[in-house]
Amino acid sequence: MLRHRSLDAGEVQSVIIAPDFPPRVRPAALICDFAGVLYDDSEWPRWLSRLLNRVAVACDSKRLFAVWDSEYLDLVHSGARPFHEAFGSLLRHFSLTAGQIDEIAAASRLRRQQLAEYARPYPGVAAALRQLAAEGATLALLADTEHTAPTVALQAERMGMEGVFSVVLSSADLKSAKPRPRGYVEALDRLQASPDQAAFVGRRASHLATAARLGLGTFALNYDSDAAADFHLRRFDELIAILHQWPASAAA
């Protein structure tokens, strides 16, 4: 059963907290997911749905995204298939002509490039990360993406997050995407932190569940309806008030 707790100083009105929390010391290391947690990644699916409705009215965009997520996305994020090659294969499974597939694939490539170039963090994210780093927290970025870690680091820098992450990891480099544990374990190793010294900030129920099984604290943001976590946040910067009030030693 989850409950609400009011935090003082006006920084956080209420967050959803797991009962009898915290069972651990305050985390000194944070592992952050990237897309959908630090910045909004929902524009491409919305744009693609509109394009499909215009170009291929018979194509069920909801089913297309379900197939993409279940059968292709892990292969792309694990580096097994290039994004646009996998996307082209996906489109060929639906009732689309060769001309429609070419048009959709070309437009998608251009739109994704534009969105990556102009992506901006959610409100308060960059400032909160800088404050956490200044207060001594060590931060890792664990991104599920087809891009390499240096590209992810450049994306974060363009969003105003330069210099805040001690570690940047890409699923494409690791050949393993969440919810498999390799990325979390690698992040802990690079941060030189044990699981009870760290917490994971994510949105997917399965990703948060893996973090919890490994012994990390968990913060859910923009989360799935069935996501279980120690804290469910409305904004990333609520982390600061929570950490400030978190006991420095485990509860008796």
Question: How would you explain this protein's 3D organization?
Answer:
Strands 1-2-8-7-6-3-4-5 form an eight-stranded mixed sheet, sandwiched between helices. Helix content is 44%, strand content 13%. The model is unreliable at 1-13 (pLDDT under 50). The chain contains ten helices and eight strands. By secondary structure, the chain is of the alpha/beta class. The chain folds into two domains: 3-40 and 121-245, Rossmann fold (3-Layer(aba) Sandwich), CATH 3.40.50.1000; 43-118. The chain is elongated and about 60 Å long.
How are the secondary structure elements laid out?
Blueprint: E1 3-5, E2 15-17, E3 29-32, H1 43-55, H2 61-77, H3 83-92, H4 98-118, H5 125-134, E4 138-143, H6 149-158, E5 167-170, H7 171-174, H8 182-191, E6 198-202, H9 205-213, E7 217-221, E8 231-233, H10 238-245
Parallel strand pairs: 3-4, 3-6, 4-5, 6-7, 7-8
Antiparallel strand pairs: 1-2, 2-8
Helix pairs in contact: 1-4, 2-3, 3-4
* Major sheet size, sense and barrel closure: 8 strands, mixed
- What is the rounded Rg? 19 Å
**N-C termini distance:** 21 Å
Task: Indicate the structural class.
Answer: alpha/beta
What is the structure about, briefly put?
By secondary structure, the chain is α/β, with parallel strands linked by helices. Helices cover 44% and strands 13% of the residues. Strands 1-2-8-7-6-3-4-5 form an eight-stranded mixed beta sheet, sandwiched between helices.
